[in-house]
């Protein structure tokens, strides 16, 4: 088993020819045509466990590789790898790999799932006294008649410090736009076996009670970046309101994580990243407001200017997503997390007590803030809503630290259900009170006919939801 550390970068297919001619590349390179076949059981048991199994053919040579999940780095992949030469086109599954132990009797069901064909060009690059293998892959993934293009750069660290990978990535981006990649070829293939989504929700963060604060924060941060990048990629390909919404959710989740761990993060880093993420959320915000508002507009005269504003807002989003500012923010965040986020010795403590303290304080604040929900001003109620989001994200992040017993899992589910119910009502209230301001920004008078009775009903529902949340049993004790 050999550890592998690589930084994956996505680039547009039309930029690949430019990169191949990049003046900073060494004159010498190697070129190879690679054909890889990936295998799994019909119900994808390996993929569900974060494993991939492939046989790659280059010329007459075949190499079988098993890789473990490498998502923790959000662009920086550090993976366990089992590799050996094989003679035929079928995998050799024995004690030299973990596949048999993972699958048991189901190992007999392993069969071909999808193929990947790429033209690979490889250079050996020196950056800041580090030796880096730089690879440009261009090709396609094929699954049962469906096909998806691949165009990516991989920077694999052969010797030296991981920071050199990011220094080289910045040099590349100065001339050719790249952004951190978060999907391995195996993950792309698995996704292609199903219908392509219009948006991608946050994936559960795999934590366990033995983890330290540092390990937990780095894993949460990586998961948030992955969530954002998956939806950003959808947006850059084709705008959908769902992908924009999930990109904003990913930003909010990351900002919430930064606040949860703020006592252990460098002040300057925290201020910088919170500021940039707040800006990015605002960039996406106007488009999201109009996406939510438009289905409620029945007046044809009002729809025309709002549709024009909506189209302009969508264009504005796509222009900024393509900008160097956004690309460098993502790369900076990936590097910061990959190098430990500047966390000190205190971050080596057990994560569970820290998480319990942070959740308890948030819950207490929400209980106090929302005590007179019906009489709160719109602004004060919005603050309760924001704190409820932080508590929900924190409860979702930290769930794995407290799920060793069945009673904890049932309490988690109930608690998150109460939080979600309160968020839904407060979200509806926020949409209601925000509508006049949105219309005014676009020169339209009044609102869209929402009456006081609707608001009163929502306020009563919010008060009930708040009471039920306060009474819900905590799962972190």
TrEMBL record:
Q: Where is the CHAD domain?
A: 210-477
Q: Which top-level group of life is the source organism from?
A: Bacteria
Q: Where is the CYTH domain?
A: 2-196
Q: What is the protein name stated in its UniProt record?
A: Inorganic triphosphatase
Provenance organism = Sphingomonas bisphenolicum
């Amino acid at each position: 088993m050999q550890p592998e550390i690589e930084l994956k970068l996505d680039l547009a297919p039309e930029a690949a020819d430019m990169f191949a001619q990049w003046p900073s590349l060494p004159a010498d390179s190697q070129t190879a045509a690679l054909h890889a076949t990936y295998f799994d059981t019909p119900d994808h048991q390996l993929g569900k466990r974060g494993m991939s199994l492939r046989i790659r053919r280059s010329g007459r040579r075949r190499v079988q590789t098993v890789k473990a999940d490498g998502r923790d780095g959000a662009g920086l992949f550090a993976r366990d790898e089992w590799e050996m030469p094989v003679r035929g086109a079928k995998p050799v599954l024995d004690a030299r790999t973990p596949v048999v132990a993972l699958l048991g009797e189901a190992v007999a069901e392993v069969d071909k799932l999808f193929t990947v064909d790429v033209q690979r060009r490889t250079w050996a690059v020196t950056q800041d006294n580090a030796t880096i293998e730089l690879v440009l892959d261009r090709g396609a993934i094929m699954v049962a008649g469906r096909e998806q293009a691949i165009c990516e750069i991989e920077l694999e660290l052969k010797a030296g410090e991981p920071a050199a990978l990011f220094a080289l990535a910045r040099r590349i981006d100065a001339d050719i736009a790249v952004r951190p990649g978060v999907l391995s070829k195996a993950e792309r293939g698995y996704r292609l076996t199903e219908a392509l989504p219009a948006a991608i929700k946050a994936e559960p963060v795999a934590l366990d009670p033995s983890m330290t604060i540092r390990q937990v924060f780095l894993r949460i941060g990586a998961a948030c970046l992955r969530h954002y990048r998956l939806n950003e990629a959808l947006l850059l390909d084709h705008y959908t309101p769902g992908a924009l919404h999930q990109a904003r959710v990913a930003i909010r989740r990351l900002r919430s994580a930064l606040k949860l761990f703020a006592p252990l993060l460098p002040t300057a880093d925290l201020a910088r990243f919170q500021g940039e993420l707040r800006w990015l959320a605002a960039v996406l915000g106007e488009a999201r407001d109009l996406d939510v508002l438009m289905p409620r507009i029945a007046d044809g005269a009002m729809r025309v200017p709002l549709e024009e504003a909506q189209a302009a807002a969508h264009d504005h989003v796509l222009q900024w997503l393509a900008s160097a500012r956004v690309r460098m923010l993502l790369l900076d965040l990936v590097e910061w997390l990959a190098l430990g986020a500047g966390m000190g010795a205190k971050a080596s403590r057990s994560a569970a007590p820290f998480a319990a303290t942070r959740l308890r304080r948030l819950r207490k604040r929400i209980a106090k803030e929302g005590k007179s929900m019906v009489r709160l001003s719109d602004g004060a109620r919005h603050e309760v809503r924001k704190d409820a989001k932080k508590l929900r994200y924190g409860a979702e992040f930290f769930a794995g630290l407290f799920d060793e017993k069945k009673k904890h899992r049932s309490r988690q589910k109930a608690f998150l259900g109460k939080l979600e119910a309160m968020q839904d009502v407060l979200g509806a209230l926020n949409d209601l009170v925000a509508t006049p301001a949105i219309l005014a920004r676009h020169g339209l008078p009044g609102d869209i006919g929402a009456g006081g009775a609707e608001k009163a009903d929502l306020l009563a529902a919010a008060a009930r939801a708040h009471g039920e949340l306060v009474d819900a049993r905590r799962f972190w004790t």
